[in-house]
Design brief:
The protein has 4 helices and 6 strands.
Length: about 160
């Protein structure tokens, strides 16, 4: 998952991320990464991430993508954004899901329940196919280093 410490959309989903760790942590490898620029958002650096993880009791790895290379490779757009990889028949890790946690947003009446990601994880764990319709995540845009915005954000390559 691409998350960070300052984004109000991430703050909104923090309780569900804790529940996901509790419910799936023994069956899937959860991994959080912050790719935000510390030039523009120093609170999203390693110390801010450590404080966030400690405050929430997260035990899953929470990494800092200083060069933003993972976010670039994933064509990351926002925080939070969720990716689910699984081993395919040729023993390769393949992207099976990219999208939203659920339909809940800060200030909305939609229940925070992780429905979309949970459905995808359940299907993968059961060896079932996933639906082609995956809802994109909505949140704060990734904070790219100044002058380093990827082409899909309209900035220089």
């Amino acid at each position: 998952m691409l998350i960070c410490s300052h984004c109000p959309f991430v703050k909104h989903v923090e309780p569900e991320l804790s529940r996901l760790e509790r419910d799936y942590g023994q069956r899937v490898s959860l991994l959080a990464v912050s790719s935000n620029s510390v030039i523009t958002h120093p609170q999203d650096g390693p110390e801010g991430l450590r404080q966030q993880a400690q405050r929430l009791g997260w035990a899953f790895p929470y990494l800092f993508d200083e060069q933003q290379s993972l976010a670039m490779a994933l064509r990351g757009a926002c925080t939070p954004e969720f990716y689910l990889f699984a081993t395919d028949s040729s023993a390769q890790q393949t992207l099976r899901y990219r999208g939203q946690l659920d339909g809940s947003r800060p200030g909305s009446a939609v229940e925070l329940d992780g429905r979309d990601l949970r459905h995808a994880m359940d299907a993968v764990l059961a060896g079932q196919p996933l639906e082609d319709q995956q809802q994109p995540s909505i949140g704060c845009n990734i904070k790219w280093h100044p002058g380093q915005e990827p082409p899909w954000f309209g900035g220089p390559a």
